[in-house]
Amino acid sequence: MNEVTKNTQTFLETLQLAAGQDVKEWNVEILERAFGWAVYCQEVHRKLKDKPQFVEKLNRSLVIIRSLPNAALSLSEFCFDHLAKSQRLLLKSLLQNPHLSRELYQRTLIEYSKLESHKDGEEPKWNAFLEDATHCAQIKAARSSLVEMLQIVDKAVEQNKPQTKGDSMHRISTEIDASILRQYICHHLSNSPTPQRTRQHLDEKLHSIASEQSQGLSIIGNILGLPSEDTTKASIYHQCDEFVFQWIITNKDKYTKNAKLL
């Protein structure tokens, strides 16, 4: 069982890499290895799904794995049942990754065509691909609509300070990034099996954002102005605000020499 847990963690790490810039360095061999891990995890699900004691044990391990420092927020709800769709999850991550090369994108499409069985001579069914592509397109369309709506509000409320599309895009992008970062911080503060190590990781994460992203400081500072989206999480939001506030107080002199914090 320990080997299964270790291999499942390897797949989750691969899935996380598939959604980021690391795929710039991927080649066909690495991609095939990733597909291999996905197939392996689906086999694990098939063999263990009717063995509750093993399912429960693996789920306990997944709780720890997904809460480790540097674990992606997108995997925060990952559990045993998700293993059944490991290939689909990997393909969707690759499909929406703009850093994927043309060659690997073509390989991804080929793998999509294999997801649904079809007889020899028949055209492959593309239901999974169309569903995932539609979802990705809807997300981009929603972002664009939000920008347009924000422009309308800006013009109605601030007649003397008209906003350009670029200004609106910058504003909404910063707020979205701040919201995602807060979710990431809250997830790790509330679920970490190693609190001290997690706080060190989060400290390094904020330093990375502040130093490597042009609007990093603004993103971090905007967390303190975000509304409480869920009243049941008031306590963890408070912990997040305290952590971010203390980080700002401790590091403001380092980063405000050449930029404004808020």
Structure overview:
The protein contains ten helices and no strands. The mean pLDDT is 81. The termini are far apart. The protein is an all-alpha fold and 262 residues long.
Number of helices: 10
Which residue ranges are poorly predicted, with pLDDT under 50 across at least 5 consecutive positions? Answer: none
Q: Structural class per helix/strand content? A: mainly alpha
Radius of gyration: 21 Å
How many E strands? 0
pLDDT averaged over residues: 81
The SSE order reads HHHHHHHHHH
Distance between the termini: 49 Å
How would a crystallographer describe the biggest sheet? none
Helix content percent band? 55-70%
Shape: globular
Portion of residues in beta strands equals under 5%
Topology:
Blueprint: H1 2-18, H2 28-48, H3 52-65, H4 86-95, H5 102-115, H6 127-157, H7 165-191, H8 195-212, H9 216-222, H10 234-255
Helix pairs in contact: 1-2, 1-3, 1-4, 4-5, 6-7, 7-9, 7-10, 8-9
Notable traits:
262 residues, mainly alpha, 10 helices
Q: What would a concise description of this structure say?
A:
It is built from ten helices and no strands.
